[in-house]
């Protein structure tokens, strides 16, 4: 017996030595992989500070938009998917956390045995069994902490989805306002072309213009009517897109109201380093990277022998009363030290797989940070440029409108030709259309800036994922 125990101990010791030689841990960190960040935005102006905590939705001063964002938070299916993934991640974290605790099972059994000769027999038993894997090397703790970090990353995903949906609703709402204004402009254009045609026909009736002028005016009217149809189609499409975001049936019944908001001067933009702690997608990438580091340690520790304890106790006999008779009680306890000897390289391959995943998450984190910086710099840089563009197009529109008024009066007096009239009208329509689009583009970029900087807003706080789980 002693020789057998010696052989078993020697085998375990040999396996332990071989696995210890293969055991190694690696550090996975994004430190040193990111380029140095400046102390302020290269495209920005203004002081860093308090304005980052503003409610950016409220700053747009549109009560209807605020109501639509609240509606989207309640009905958007993408948000519901993110929340479900968060719940799943929390459940996975509870599962890994439960592995620290002993497992206790109860059993009761009845067995009837029949023999070919003689009478049969009955047996009954009642028992308890307990098992516990001791966390000697901290592998269970590493996996539990990794699951907790993955759950935190899932919560950040929910916050990122909330921010994204709020931004999409805001931009969709402003696109719908633009589409409505473009439709109204097209309607005014049709009315203007009709008025020009009526004037041309009266002048033709008096012999002041040729018939080709009438046909030219009719052609311009038909083109404007075709443009109106396109604008109406675009407005309906914008309404359906927004209704889908809200979780409504896309009936194109959502009617825009109001105008684009007046935008305040930028300020309080923070710094590129501040952004890493504000953006939920960056925080999620960091949590997943930290979780991968813990999982890599746990995978390496799987190569080390593990210790588990198991105990059982039970009663039994031929009668039911024997189940409650302590004289029949039998108990046992077992300690098991298990070390991998040969598994075809499975554990090493699993460790290497976890290492590769962690390396990929390092690159993913760096990519996420660089994208966050890029989006912020682009939006900050575009803000001033778009403001200047809006001002230039406003002047262009006003001058074109004034020129159109002059040409209309000149055409009525017979000084200008039909082509000069149509050109002036087209120039005014084009300038006003560009002015409307530029105003929408500027406010949309401001929303993109708030998204890039992860600006706060009240709806996001009321929809915090932890509120759905009571945590």
Automatic annotation (TrEMBL):
Q: Which Pfam families match?
A: OEP
Location in the cell = Cell membrane
GO function terms (MF aspect): efflux transmembrane transporter activity
Keywords on record: Lipoprotein, Membrane, Palmitate, Signal, Transmembrane, Transmembrane beta strand
Question: By its UniProt entry, which InterPro entries does this protein fall under?
Answer: MdtP/NodT-like, OMP_efflux
**Leader sequence residues:** 1-22
Q: Which domain of life is it from?
A: Bacteria
A single Gene Ontology CC term: plasma membrane
How would you describe this protein's topology in the membrane?
Lipid-anchor
Q: What is its main location?
A: membrane
Classification via PANTHER family: BLR4455 PROTEIN (PTHR30203:SF33), OUTER MEMBRANE CATION EFFLUX PROTEIN (PTHR30203)
Q: Which family does it belong to?
A: Belongs to the outer membrane factor (OMF) (TC 1.B.17) family.
Q: What is this protein called?
A: NodT family efflux transporter outer membrane factor (OMF) lipoprotein
- Native organism is Maricaulis maris
Species lineage = Bacteria, Pseudomonadati, Pseudomonadota, Alphaproteobacteria, Maricaulales
